[in-house]
Amino acid sequence: MASTMISLASATPSASLSVQETLKGKTRLGSGSVSTLFNKEKGNPSNKKKSFGRISMTVAVNVSRFEGIAMAPPDPILGVSEAFRADIDVKKLNLGVGAYRTEELQPYVLDVVKKAENLMLERGENKEYLPIEGLAAFNKVTAELLFGADNPVIEQQRVATVQGLSGTGSLRLAAALIERYFPGAQVLISSPTWGNHKNIFNDARVPWSEYRYYDPKTVGLDFEGMISDIKAAPEGSFVLLHGCAHNPTGIDPTPEQWEKIADVIQEKNHIPFFDVAYQGFASGSLDADASSVRLFAARGMELLVAQSYSKNLGLYAERIGAINVVCSSADAAARVKSQLKRIARPMYSNPSVHGARIVANVVGDPALFNEWKAEMEMMAGRIKNVRQKLFDSLSAKDKSGKDWSFILKQIGMFSFTGLNKAQSDNMTNKWHVYMTKDGRISLAGLSLAKCEYLADAIIDSYHNVS
Ligand code: PGU
Questions:
Q1: Angle ∠(164,168,170) on CA atoms, nearest 5
Q2: What is the pLDDT of residue 284?
Q3: CA 168, CA 43: separation in Å to the nearest integer?
Q4: The dihedral of CA 270, 271, 277, 282: what is its sign?
Q5: Which strands sit side by side in the sheet containing 303-308, from one edge to the other?
Q6: Ligand 1 pocket mutation, candidates 194, 244, 383, 437, criterion most atoms within 8 A of CB
Q7: Where are the domains of the chain?
């Protein structure tokens, strides 16, 4: 804690005590934290050399300039990992954050990532600053991976692609663009959604509202509600859509439903804004998981897409992703890109190179690219296996007749269990299963060996806690 020097003039030394007492009352001081100096010359900083014939004193007080700052609550997702680390129980299980683990529940660095890093060392690549928009080779492959290399939007140079600090940083750049160039426009977000979406738009001062998405009665998509809320929104709103593997519900629209969603967005002159954090992780196929975005692009719509390589390449801490803005002309794309760079420059200047080179090396090399696809299928396959085993365990153990088949219908990393906050608390407090309070569990953090234990925890929480 910084110490603040408070200078006071006082006629007698005894007066200093009352000053000290007053200060004690106003601040949270311990007994040893006030030092009182009596000094005829140093009393008033502006009169350091002068003496006025009376005793002046300086009180050093341990009072922080940050006293008015309250403790922030823990993050609803990343805070779960902190709590998990503090738990010493051997049975503990971290199903909070969406991060892939091996069957041994260890973090996994993809083989293709290690190979791409070796390539970087062999080539002796340097650490010079990147341009503000990021690594050109990365920006090229990331747009191609998303839209398909032969997509007209790429051939016609209608995509403004800027490397971002993973999915979050890319969303945040887009949010800043919206705030600057579409003042008053609101962003529609699904209810529920990934917890950080609201933070991102709040921080960027972009108004948002929610559209219906999840129907707890059917444990499925509330498609009618979604369509009518998008229709009811003011013209020209941004509609945030999860490209695939909706977080937290694991429920995606069907291809026919995507067409209808595109219809209403077009009718209302809204602007689709995709968050693609799980390309390849939903179905195991990079192309299939990009089909929603490609469907909108094929209609000639302008749209925004934030991408992340945290999950599909396991590059969580490299913070590598991109924001893509598809515009109706190459000229508009060039202008949008220049403004995205202008937003990035005072915030972080330019992005980091390591993750960008990994992605460029993997996607740009046909052999590594194929190896990546195989590894991604392996990861997606492991998650599907634990999903099945969890369903089997729940169905075998739960004698109440409850239908747990919704778990098999959900896709991607997560299962939205329907457990409420009190039940989720029971999962953690009694069973040492760490999860988010909205009832979401990350199946990517579950092993086959732990499925039975998890099923016991869920059944107990579901039936014995209201
Ligand atoms: N968008 C969605 C839908 C996400 O689920 C996530 C990550 C991101 C964007 C951003 O991820 P980046 O790492 O910035 O690329 N959600 C995970 C990770 C933990 C978190 O909250 O950041 C999750 O567990 O929901």
A1: 30
A2: 86
A3: 52
A4: positive
A5: 159-165, 320-326, 303-308, 271-276, 238-242, 187-191, 208-212
A6: 194
A7: 2-63, 78-108+378-464, 129-364
Q: Which fold has domain 129-364?
A: Aspartate Aminotransferase; domain 2 (3.40.640)
Respond yes or no: is residue 208 known to be catalytic.
Answer: no
- pLDDT tens digits, residue range 181-237? 999 999 999 999 999 999 999 999 999 999 999 999 888 999 999 999 999 999 999
Question: Which amino acid, one-letter code, is at 301?
Answer: M
Specify the residue with its C-alpha closest to ligand 1, atom 19.
97
Residue 380's pLDDT is what? 92
Cα–Cα distances (Å) from 94 to 77, 192, 325, 451, in that order, read: 11, 22, 36, 13
Chain position carrying tokens 């997606």: 380
H helix or E strand, kind and range, residue 6: strand 4-9
- Known catalytic membership, residue 389: no
The one catalytic residue among 115, 275, 289, 337: 275
Contact 164, 351 (CB under 8 A): yes
CATH class in words for 78-108+378-464: alpha beta
pLDDT of 9 > 50? The answer is no
pLDDT tens per residue, range 19-47 = 333 343 343 333 333 333 333 334 344 44
Q: How far apart are CA 264 and CA 256, in angstroms?
A: 13
Pairwise CA distance, residues 231 & 459, whole Å: 40
Confidence of residue 281 (pLDDT cuts 50, 70, 90): confident
DSSP line for 315-371: -GGG-EEEEEEE-SSHHHHHHHHHHHHHHHHHHHSS--SHHHHHHHHHHHSHHHHHH
Establish whether 194 is a catalytic residue: yes
pLDDT of residue 409: 94
More confident residue, 144 or 219: 144
| Dihedral angle sign, alpha carbons of residues 211, 217, 221, 225 | negative
- Ligand 1 pocket (Cβ < 6 Å) reads 77-78, 97-98, 166-168, 194, 196, 242, 247, 275, 277, 308, 310, 316, 321
Residue 21 per-residue DSSP state: H
According to the model, what pLDDT value does residue 62 have?
A: 82
Say what the pTM is: 0.87
- Mean predicted lDDT score pLDDT of the chain: 89
Closest of 363, 357, 369 to residue 136, by C-alpha: 357
Q: Which two tokens stand for residue 315?
A: 């590059």
